[in-house]
Every structure is written in structure tokens, then in C-alpha cells.
Amino acid sequence: MRAVVWHGPDQVRVDERPEPTLEQPDDAILRVTTSAICGSDLHLVRGRLPRVRPGTVIGHEFCGEVVAVGEGVRRHRPGDRAVAAMHTACGRCPSCLAGQHARCPDYAMFGCGELFGDLDGGQAELVRVPLADMTLAPIPSGLDDADALFVGDILATAYTACVDAGIAPGETAAVVGCGPVGQLLVECLQLFAPAAVFAIDPVAERLAQAAGRGAVPLPAGDDPRAALRALNRGRRADCVLEAVGSAGGLETAWRLVETGGRVVLVGLLVDEPFPESAGQTWLRALTVRPVLGRPYAHRDTLLRLIQQGRLHPAGVVSETVPLADAPDAYRRLQARLTTKVLLRP
Ligand SMILES: [Zn+2]
Ligand SMILES: [Zn+2]
Question: How many angstroms is it from 127 CA to the middle of ligand 2?
Fold first, then answer.
């Protein structure tokens, strides 16, 4: 089978690999019909994630058709369509029962290297899915791959961020960075009845897309804080959601948040410093909340919202290309020539 394989910093190739087989009774083998390139895959490809072994198959957003199941799998049968969560979890341990599936002892992230469980990813023709009854969710009939795919990662991340931010009706929110996650944040925030959602991004086209999803665009300029105050009766935002994962994004988030407000860290951060001292954050009484998406907690809700037409995650897809074109897609993503690429084996 063919798979997208990481060979070292900025070295991605499509290789021929042995087909995965059932290793445990609760495994399933999924024939991938669609996978996506996630923003965090770009960090991996650049070599910014620790302990990724050359030869790792990339990819943690994927869906497809079940082709084989171990004898312990109850919920899925060959021929079923299913979408994977970005990481495995047992569903039975105290962490899972408390809704903290990322703390499960059986946690393993697909396609992210040894530090995250050393599990091959889904940018491939076939993928082994451990703990399949938990990891895979059936795709409701009527939903295309592109509709359902993101409940395993970026849509779950955006929705988790809104839940964890505790957005109350009538509050104002600002989204820093209007890439795919930023766009989905804008969509999800509308479900929480805010007074306004502001959006900021240096790329005019992304800002226009956010406006199309109901955000008030903040003009890119030297002073986003002044721009926000001018549009928000002199106030900054009650809650700012940072969806870039960069030092610049953090700085903007800290400038846009009102005294006593919340900063929600959604973008993947590696070693970026905080933009102000602990003392300043204390004086301003800010709450800083890092967010890790919880697909297991929210995917059923999200699939229902998509079916009801209240969320349109497929709208963030910029292009769909054959799996063989993955290396070129990575290059164009790094060069910011495209935003959300789907791969079709
Ligand atoms: Zn991801
Ligand atoms: Zn568990």
C-alpha cells in the first residue's frame, strides 16, 4: 500500500509500505477514503516535534471504510464507513470516564511519532486502528467524507475551545488567525450566542471568509487593539482565542483581551514565550486556558450539528488532491499557497 512517510526535516515522500494487519483483538483495519493535512502536521514535517522516527506514516485526520475487524470489535463491521478520532483511548479507565481521554494510559496519537505513542497515521491507503470500538465513530448516512472528517480533530478542537472558554450569551470574542481552525472557531462560537465575534488575520482573503461566517473583521494594521475598541464601544474582547500557535499570535491575543478576560490557546505551541510577565497577567486578572481538542466528548454532538446544517466544516477545504500529490501539497502549505488539503488515496 502507499503511504505518506516522513524521512526527516522537510522530507516527505509517498512510499510503498507493507499492508497493516490486525495485531490486537480490538483492532480494525480502515481503508482510508479521505485524509486531511492538519496544521500540526506542518510542525512535524519541519522537524519541530521531538522524537519522530524517520519512516513514520503521517496523518491523524482520516475516515474510510472498515475492511477487517478483530474478534473483540462489536460496533463496526466490514463495509461500515467510520471517522477516526485523532488519538486512541480505552473508554473504560478513570481518565476516560472523567472525559479526559487524552490522559488515558492507552493514548496514542496517529502519525505523530514516539512521544505520542508511535502509531502510524492515516495519510495512507490502509491504517490499523487500535481500540476500534472507541476510536472510530460511524459516519451518519447523508454525510460526505469532507463533512464528517473534521470531528476527529480540528472541528472538535474548535468546539472544545468554545466550551472550555465558557462563552456566555452576550459576551464578545475575538479569534486570532483565520486558518482552518480559526474559521471553525468562528462557526462554533456562533452556537454560543455571543454579542459579536471579531476576527483578525493579515491575509485579506481569510478575513473575508471569516466575515462570511459571521465574524466582524478587524482591519490588519499596526494597532489591532485600537481597531477592536473602535468597533466594540471602547472595550476589548471578553475572550480571545489564539489559533495561530506563534509568538506573534500570542502577542496579538494578549493585546486584544479585556482586563479580567480569558485567553484561550488553541494553536499548537512548542517553545514560544508568554508575551507578558506573570506579574502583568496577574495585574490584568487574565485567565489563560490551553485547549486540547476532545473529539470523544463532542463528536456525537458535532455530527448532529453538521446533519442539522448548523455547522459546515467542509467549507474550510481549499483543495482535494490524490495521495500521490501529498509532498507537493506539503510544500504549498508551507508556502501558504493553500490552507486545508484533503488527500484521496
Ligand atoms: Zn491536528
Ligand atoms: Zn482510558
Answer: 21
Same-domain check for residues 253 and 305: no
Q: Residues 331, 233: one domain?
A: no
Q: 280 and 301: one domain?
A: no
CATH number at residue 241: 3.40.50.720
Of the residues 290, 309, 331, the one at which a domain ends: 290
Domain that holds residue 79: 2-150+294-344
- CA of residue 252 to ligand 1 center, whole Å: 23
One domain, residues 13 and 143 = yes
Spacing, Cα 39 to ligand 1 middle (Å): 6
Nearest to 267 by CA among 185, 197, 168, 196: 185
The Å distance, Cα 273 to ligand 2 centre, comes to 32
Please check whether residue 79 is in contact with residue 141, taking contact to mean a CB–CB distance below 8 angstroms: no
pLDDT of residue 60: 97
Q: Is the pLDDT confidence value at 115 over 80? A: yes
Kindly state whether residues 64 and 146 are assigned to the same domain. Answer: yes
Q: How far is the CA of 113 from the centre of ligand 2 (A)?
A: 20
The residues, any chain, with a CB within 8 Å of residue 23's CB and separated by 6 or more, are 128, 130
Residue type present at position 307: Q
CA–CA gap between residue 319 and residue 323 (Å, rounded)? 12
Query: What's the number of domains the chain is made of?
Result: 2
**Do 323 and 245 fall into the same domain?**
no
Rounded to the nearest angstrom, the distance between the alpha carbon of 329 and the centre of ligand 1 is 16
CA of 267 to the centre of ligand 1 (A): 10
pTM, two decimal places? 0.94
What's the mean pLDDT in 183-205?
Answer: 96
* Pairwise CA distance, residues 32 & 323, whole Å: 10
Confirm if 30 and 84 have CB atoms less than 8 A apart. yes
pLDDT at 302 over 90: yes
